Amino acid sequence: MRRILIVEDESAIAELISINLRHAGFEVTIAGDAEQAQVVVDGVLPSLVVLDWMLPGQSGQALARFWRNQARTRELPIIMLTARAEEADKISGLDAGADDYLTKPFSANELLARIRAVLRRRAPDALDAAVDIGALTINPATRRVMSQGREVKIGATEFKLLHFLMTHPERVHSRTQLLDRVWGDHVFIEERTVDVHIKRLRESLGAVNCQHMIETVRGAGYRFANPQAVTV
Ligand code: CA
């Protein structure tokens, strides 16, 4: 899933960016300062952060530098925003560890293009290519699951779960791993929550006769498999 965190204290700008990113299929969280941003990042690591330089309290530059020095956030893609166009600022923004840099005012389309470029480079998994396995197709861009021309009605969590399983097929995932990868690390949910959502997912897939693609591996977890695939 593609989650973007916008760290910007000017709420009009944050909202405008957020509307455009949501429209483009991203999930968006807004933080008004470095402290709020840290809380968000401590919960679920976003796919990318759009980070304003000028924030009340700790600056965006200092926050970028801090994240680059933490093991968990070292690889976090960051695009910095600033009102200042001086070359020296641009260099210190990139020095602080930003992947790219945009000067205000900028167009929403330009930001979107930069986000996609950084994600392609840094987190290709976060891009929303459709995945086809057997009779099932999942498309994060349209948020649809299709099977032989029929749309599968599916809840938001089941969609994320199915997307993770279909992008990592044939492997056995423990409940803990699924909680980390689908619900987000640092989120404390009981493991049986996974079973509840697997059950709902199978019910949804049952409508197109694909429920058997979600296999229970006794004592280990769950696996997405394509029983129609012939092993030679
Ligand atoms: Ca600002």
CATH C-level of the largest domain: Alpha Beta
The CATH superfamily label of the largest domain reads: Response regulator
Mean residue pLDDT: 88
CATH topology of the largest domain: Rossmann fold
Count, helices: 8
Poorly predicted runs are none
* Radius of gyration based on Cα positions: 20 Å
Q: Structural class from helices and strands?
A: alpha/beta
Q: Which CATH-level-2 architecture of the largest domain?
A: 3-Layer(aba) Sandwich
Give the CA-CA distance, first to last residue.
34 Å
Amount of beta strand: 15-25%
What number of structural domains do the residues give?
A: 2
Keywords:
four-stranded antiparallel beta sheet, alpha/beta, five-stranded parallel beta sheet, Rossmann fold, 12 strands, binds calcium ion, 2 domains, 232 residues
Structure write-up:
The protein is of the alpha/beta class and 232 residues long. The protein is 40% helix and 21% strand. The chain has eight helices and twelve strands. It has a five-stranded parallel sheet, sandwiched between helices. A four-stranded antiparallel sheet has the order 6-7-8-9, with helices on one face. The protein has a three-stranded antiparallel sheet with strand order 10-12-11. Bound molecules: calcium ion (CA). The site of calcium ion has 6 residues, from loops.
